[in-house]
User: Which sequence fits this backbone?
């Protein structure tokens, strides 16, 4: 994980991200979102995110567009992880919903259904991560240790994205 950014480092990073956001049109982002095959409602909501701005000093920062660009970069860098997690979430959600719909026992089994749904989502993400690793020519380990390593790697990659975005944005945006 990277260390905390100093204010000048955060300002530079934010300036570079802002230049990238300014260089991409909102319609190009919408087309990319639409072409990914996301449901129309999700595409619209993500596109709405791109319109969110925040004033910092005498500048207006395209915070929503920057976050959307970072999400797109993450998806492009880890396509199978995202697909695996999405498929796992869909299947896991369906399983949880089926368990919850059992008459009389459904409410009692709801925690089991939720845990099973999360487990299926995690296995989908792990399978996708392994495919991404193979595509990048990296060695893929199997077994319990391999699964634990994959979970740690997935968490590191995802949370590093969040840390980078939040550290950079919130060093520049101060609300009173």
Assistant:
């Amino acid at each position: 994980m990277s260390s905390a950014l100093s204010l000048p480092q955060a300002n530079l990073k934010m300036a570079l991200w802002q230049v990238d956001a300014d260089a991409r049109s909102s319609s190009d982002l919408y087309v990319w979102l639409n072409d990914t095959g996301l449901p129309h409602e999700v595409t619209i909501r993500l596109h709405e995110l791109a319109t969110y701005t925040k004033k910092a000093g005498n500048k207006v920062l395209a915070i929503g567009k920057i976050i959307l660009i970072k999400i797109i970069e993450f998806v492009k860098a880890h396509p199978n992880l995202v697909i695996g997690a999405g498929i796992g979430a869909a299947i896991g959600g369906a399983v949880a919903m089926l368990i919850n719909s059992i008459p009389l026992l459904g409410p009692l089994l709801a925690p089991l259904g939720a845990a099973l749904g999360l487990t299926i989502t995690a296995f989908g993400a792990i399978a996708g991560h392994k495919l991404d690793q193979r595509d990048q020519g990296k060695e893929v380990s199997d077994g319990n240790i391999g699964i634990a390593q994959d979970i740690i790697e997935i968490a590191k990659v995802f949370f590093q994205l969040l840390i980078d975005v939040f550290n950079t944005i919130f060093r520049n945006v101060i609300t009173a």
User: Anything to note?
Assistant: The chain has a mean pLDDT of 83. Strands lie at 54-56, 59-61.
